[in-house]
Write a structure and sequence with these properties.
The chain has 311 residues and is an alpha/beta fold. The chain is built from ten helices and twelve strands.
């Protein structure tokens, strides 16, 4: 897969079969759209996903953009797994937002991306005049000699609902439901930084994650069974997200205890794949009670992970 960030870098000899969208999380609904793109691609026609960064709502709306299921890098990695030929990452700017639908088609889709076929939903709209929809594309297709294929309404609705449902699931501890809708584990990644190092004294040293992507959705507070991925490969682990109420003066943290690992992970990047929710975060009557619960958490997490595939 080739990723292109500048429209002028798109190969002039490539004819594109493309779809447009955020593809946040690249969940099962998105995967079906990508399958449709690939079905119409040939040796001469390449599958292309046109996506945007940052989220258009950051530019167009005074309201906060939704927390994202995937950072741009994560989105690109997931799209690569789906076997797309090209991903065009279009910087979403005020200038882009000001283009009319006609100008967007002519200047970008035709003149830059060499559009042969566009696959689009019945409710998709683009252009500052909001005229860029299925009917508009069909009306100008003969002028520019491209084909329009409609994504079925059922799939579009399923895709829109899925994104909302996944966010809801992750904020209500429904990890298995989120995985089912995504078609893969939900994951977060960050740099391992030094914490209070209390976990070592409890017999459960943890890697404290600093998540740099402020727009990334973090699952609800609690304890989780996870797969940890880092320089050591992929190992079973358990993760705590929350305020550590048993520890006086503790701050909110995101930390993972990686089973069967001994070593230093500081400054390294760690990715955590969520498999299942273990329990709510609660305050214990002292450290001994906390240690006893951590032992139970480890047993439960190991049991869950023993029967689930690695990412």
């Amino acid at each position: 897969m080739k990723v292109i960030y500048n429209l002028n870098d798109f190969p002039s000899e490539v004819k594109s079969v493309l779809s447009i969208g955020m593809f946040d999380g690249v969940h099962k609904g998105h995967q079906q759209i990508i399958h449709e793109i690939k079905q119409h691609a040939t040796a001469e026609l390449k599958s292309v996903v046109l996506t945007f960064w940052p989220h258009p709502k950051k530019i167009l709306s005074t309201q906060a953009a939704p927390q994202l299921l995937s950072t741009l890098d994560e989105r690109l990695s997931l799209l690569e797994k789906e076997g797309v030929d090209y991903v065009m990452v279009l910087p979403f700017t005020a200038a882009l937002a000001s283009l009319s639908a006609y100008a967007f088609v002519e200047d970008i889709l035709i003149n830059k991306l060499n559009l042969h076929t566009i696959i689009i939903g019945y409710d998709h709209k683009f252009g500052n005049d909001r005229k860029g929809d299925l009917i508009f594309l069909k009306s100008i297709a003969p002028q520019f000699n491209f084909q329009v294929i409609e994504i079925p309404a059922q799939l579009i609705e399923q895709t829109a609902v899925s994104s909302t449902e996944i966010r809801e699931a992750l904020t209500h501890h429904n990890i298995t439901e989120a995985s089912l809708l995504l078609g893969h584990y939900y994951s977060i990644a960050g740099t391992v930084v030094k914490g209070r190092q209390l976990g070592r004294t409890l017999g459960y040293p943890t890697a404290n994650l600093e998540i740099e992507a402020a727009e990334k959705l973090i699952p609800a507070n609690g304890i989780y069974a996870v797969w940890a991925e880092g320089s050591f490969g992929i190992l079973p682990a358990m993760m705590s997200i929350g305020d550590n109420p048993t520890i006086e003066g503790a701050e909110h943290s995101i930390e993972a205890h990686v089973f069967d690992f001994k070593g230093d992970l500081y400054t390294q990047n760690l990715r955590v794949h969520f498999v299942d929710f273990l329990r709510e975060e609660i305050k214990f009557d002292g450290l001994d009670a906390l240690i006893s619960q951590l032992k139970v958490d480890e047993i439960n997490a190991r049991k869950i992970l023993l029967n689930t595939p690695r990412p």
